């Protein structure tokens, strides 16, 4: 993936891991899987293995090469807390975020239980870093609201919710301790509908709790035509970013050297990376 992104609430995407597996209804029409599977079997393409989970070592140091501060969506094509990603790999990704602290990172997961466990334990040093924002996906009450509780119980300094695709009214959701809420409807073929009152309810709760509210899109099969206006205006609120200058090229080069060679997969002895859970459901490493 490019260091640029079309995602409205980020400047760049960073994918040191690619691929994922479905865990809840929000995954049904996964845009990342749809994109990746188009290129399965294409020799030399970044997604030659489709949406199989895979470590991409050459991407690890990418944020250290970017000179200007960016809002970075971490693993837009995966889930950093996927159960099959070794802790060593997660630690390496987190270490880069701590080093390249002139960027702001958005880490989003549906595996909120593992997020809570790791931020409360091995990754506690990163939980309180104000330039790393930790978030969970919320698509409905059954699957999404327990994730919110896991996130709230974590020691994260900045917590956010990606309520996309919003599949039902979330009711009296508690936003205590939540800094930011992003809301969006599903887009593409077979997109499930989102009712305006569901969005208004979240907007009003954000207003009452002092939580930044960002309305991304109505979605649908023609999302560009549907737009992102809610009651006659756009909503682009975002939490404040920590103003940190980027170091010069020489210092960035030193930081890249400091993370060491990423040529082998964390927890693995080979140089080809790891990949698990192929499209046929099998477990493979290569």
From TrEMBL:
InterPro entries: DUF5131. Residues 229-286 are annotated as: Disordered. Residues 229-239, 246-256 have a biased composition (Basic and acidic residues). This is Phage Gp37/Gp68 family protein. It comes from Tautonia sociabilis.
